[in-house]
Design goal:
Helix content is 49%, strand content 14%. The chain contains 14 helices and 9 strands.
């Protein structure tokens, strides 16, 4: 797909109900044009993961997601051998009277017995969008390994040889900044920090994502979200939570943010008991 400018990218993303501002669109455009990974950092729920999903839909490419977590290692991200199928193959060969050890070894390490994990899938699939989600949850060692893979999109499998991406995938790396990611990985990427959307853009996002939403309800929910983010909460709501909250209100037939209904559905936006108590005590659900 030929995307000639950040403005065109904004238009294409909007066609898939993702409203990007100029800064994010420029970073994403440059990542696409330069073939560089896009590193997105910001609070949870501001649209980092959703951008990767939208890019995949826009480019009509499969989204391959590597969800990071503590203890994630190279084998879990690259590939595994299907030991159960290999064993069945050996038993079948034994039953058939095959005794050629070299032949059997060659057969059990055939590509059909290889289970591709996200990184290998991304290298083998053209085109594709690789989402490395929440890299800050992985260990330092995995960061170093990922940097190596992203440098040339080449994976060596001792039993099969080297697999190289004919066309590198579009790569989006996200971080909620629960810890600092090493500079070496950031230097490999184009970086963009995602803020919570401003009031007017959040209203526009709610109206775009939820066609049944009235402008009155969108503006009242967006204003409540601004107040909640300014409060001293354990986990303020991101745009994802605001969308969920508005959808919950719409499911109950709301046309505006009635305080009682807002309180009853607040669990769609806030996930900590302490935050619910703070909102109730400070009267943050009122609207003027």
């Amino acid at each position: 797909m030929d995307i000639e400018s950040p403005e065109k990218l904004i238009e294409l993303l909007d066609g898939h109900a993702y409203l990007a501002d100029e800064g994010l669109a420029t970073a994403a455009f440059l990542a696409l044009r330069m073939g560089r990974p896009l590193f997105l950092e910001g609070e949870a729920g501001v649209g980092k993961t959703e951008l990767a999903k939208t890019l995949a839909a826009m480019l009509e490419a499969p989204l391959i997601r590597l969800q990071c977590y503590e203890g994630l290692d190279a084998a879990q991200a690259l590939y595994d051998w299907d030991f159960a199928r290999q064993l069945l193959h050996l038993k079948a060969a034994e039953a058939a009277g095959v005794t050629d050890v070299a032949r059997l070894e060659g057969e059990i390490y055939d590509r059909r017995f290889l289970i591709a994990r996200p990184l290998l899938k991304a290298v083998e699939t053209q085109p594709s969008v690789l989402l490395v989600d929440e890299i800050d949850r992985a260990d330092d060692e995995f960061e170093a390994f990922l940097l190596e893979v992203l440098s040339d999109f080449t994976i060596s499998i001792p039993e099969l040889g080297t697999i190289r991406a004919a066309t590198p995938p579009v790569v989006v790396v996200t971080s909620n900044r629960t810890r600092e990611v090493h500079d070496a990985l950031k230097r490999r990427c184009l970086y963009h920090w995602l803020e919570h959307p401003g009031f007017e853009r959040e209203v526009a996002i709610l109206l775009r994502r939820l066609p049944g939403c009235t402008e009155t309800l969108a503006r009242q929910v967006a204003l409540a979200a601004v107040r909640l983010r300014a409060a001293d909460l354990v986990k303020p709501p991101g745009i994802a939570e605001t969308i969920d909250w508005t959808e919950a209100l719409l499911t109950l037939g709301a046309r505006e943010l009635d305080p009682g209904l807002a309180a009853a559905t607040l669990g769609a936006a806030l996930k900590y008991r302490e935050d619910l108590a703070t909102v109730t005590a400070e009267g943050l659900l009122r609207h003027d």
